[in-house]
Amino acid sequence: MANSKFNRRESLKMLGLSSAGFLGMLGQGANTKAEAKEKATSSYAKGMAPVTIKSVKAIGTRPGGSNLIVVKVETSEPGLYGLGCATFTQRAFAVLPAIEYLNEFAAGKDVDNIEDMWQSAYVSSYWRNGPVLNNALSGLDQALWDIKGKRANMPVHQLLGGKVRFAIPCYGHANGKTPKEVAEDVQSFMDRGYKYIRIQQGGYGGAGITGEPDFKKAGFAKESDNYMSQGTYLKSVPKMFEAVRKACGEEIELLHDIHERVAPIDAIGMIKKLEDYHPFFIEDPFSPENMEWFKALRASTSVPIAMGELFNNINEFKEPIVNHYFDFIRIHVSQIGGITPAMKVARLGEFYGIATAWHGPGDVSPVGHAAQAHMDYALWNFGIQEAALFSDQLREVFPGAPTMNDGYMSVNEAPGFGVEIDEKLAAKYPMSTKSNWTVRKDDGTIIRP
Ligand code: MG
After folding, report:
1. Ligand 1 center from residue 173 Cα (angstroms)
2. Interior CA angle at 150 toward 148 and 155, to 5°?
3. Residues 59, 60, 62, 68, CA torsion sign
4. Which of 97, 226, 287, 415 is spaced 20 to 30 A from 281 at the CA atom?
5. Partners of 56 in beta bridges
């Protein structure tokens, strides 16, 4: 304690300040209270001038064959705007009016107070949640983060704590009609530098392994409805893993998505059979209606599990995380309301040794992929990211979209998310109401994803 005066003087010297200058910064060098107040006020005023929201609008587009919705928030500062992903591809037109409500709600408010905006918008409809309202809210939330980054002249990951990794490891999607074809596709990803690869035979959930289903022959349901044989699928997956391990070796990390399409007890049985092939994770073993099966799954096998893309509310993650029901948080970020809630779930996961694996398919806009990538840079408990491979058309509509190299995703270092949208070009790809995600059994019974 005797040295404290000396230490302070030495510290100030290191900062290039005199004691008088330091006291002046604190307002203590002022002659009167009024002067001190004036000094304090002016130093506060040296911060950023207040900026308010002018409008919140939706931009719908479909350049890659999936409906994409981006929210654009314009502000009182000319030229300053933010973009956020509000894509609910299957019911895209339902999100547009929800965004109109947010325009009315947010216009005139301060762009800086993101947490307050999220909390107030979340309950402003009284009845909350659901994919429509949450996606609209995500568009607003992400756009405000983009604006904050632009105002701070920093990429968003810097506002979230800065980088903990140089780039973002991603997994690619290998597919094929036979195990041999899947293994060849895995090899092509390995040749491009990927270290993590998701393997599927016959597409998602094994639809397409078998031929014409009986319900179509009988003229039941729509011709475009998908079909899968659960029994054929369950037998095929261990054989696929065996073939890929044999052809591609032990080092490559392999993932697989069950897509919630089999009975819970069958999912557990199949996952146990995969233990010898040490998957990096198995995704979506159960539908959200069957969460109570996780206890039995965890008692049966140590294969790592990813789950959560169908959850609507961040509160759905509480019980699974504190009970270690799964190992990877599989959030569809726009689906749960944006960066603000996603970061909270991720931080909770850090306490329980659970990593992130944001959902990143083609029905997340490049703005959404960039938002996820900025979180991926900053989260210590990042696990893996689903790779985004954008077509040339998508890159033209969304200049600055994240890039892939050697299995790693990167974003540019521009302030905010670093992604723009060419609105004129976006308008050339109108959205569609065509959307059929139904999958049926052989007799036509609907399978719950
Ligand atoms: Mg999935």
Report:
1. 12
2. 90
3. positive
4. 226
5. 73
How close is the Cα of 18 to the center of ligand 1, in Å? 60
196 annotated active-site: no
3-state class of 333 per DSSP? Answer: helix
Is residue 204 part of the annotated active site? The answer reads yes
Amino acid at 141: D
Question: Looking at the structure, do residues 149 and 218 belong to the same domain, yes or no?
Answer: no
Last residue of a domain, one of 94, 125, 154: 154
Do 188 and 268 belong to one domain? yes
For residues 141 and 221, membership in a common domain is answered with no
145 with 276, same domain?
no
Residue whose token pair is 């994770």:
281
CA distances from 362 to 16, 37, 444 (A): 52, 54, 28
Domain membership of residue 216 (yes or no) is: yes
Amino acid at 267: A
29 is a domain residue: no
Residue 295 burial class via C-beta count within 10 angstroms: exposed 0-12, middle 13-18, buried 19 and up: exposed
* Cα 298 to averaged position of ligand 1 atoms, centre (Å): 19
Same domain, 324 and 388: yes
Co-location of 312 and 401 in the same domain: yes
State pLDDT tens for residues 268-309.
Answer: 999 999 999 999 999 999 999 999 999 999 999 999 999 999
- Which entry of 81, 122, 194, 204 is annotated as an active-site residue? 204
Catalytic residue among 259, 359, 369, 374: 259
> Contact at 8 Å (CB) between 293 and 286?
yes
- Residue span of the structural domain in which 386 resides: 158-417
Q: How does pLDDT run across 427-443, given as a tens digit for each residue?
A: 999 999 998 889 999 99
CATH of the domain at 80: 3.30.390.10
273 and 346 both lie in a single domain: yes
Residue 48 within any structural domain of the chain: no
Q: What is the pTM of this model?
A: 0.89
d(CA 77, CA 95): 27
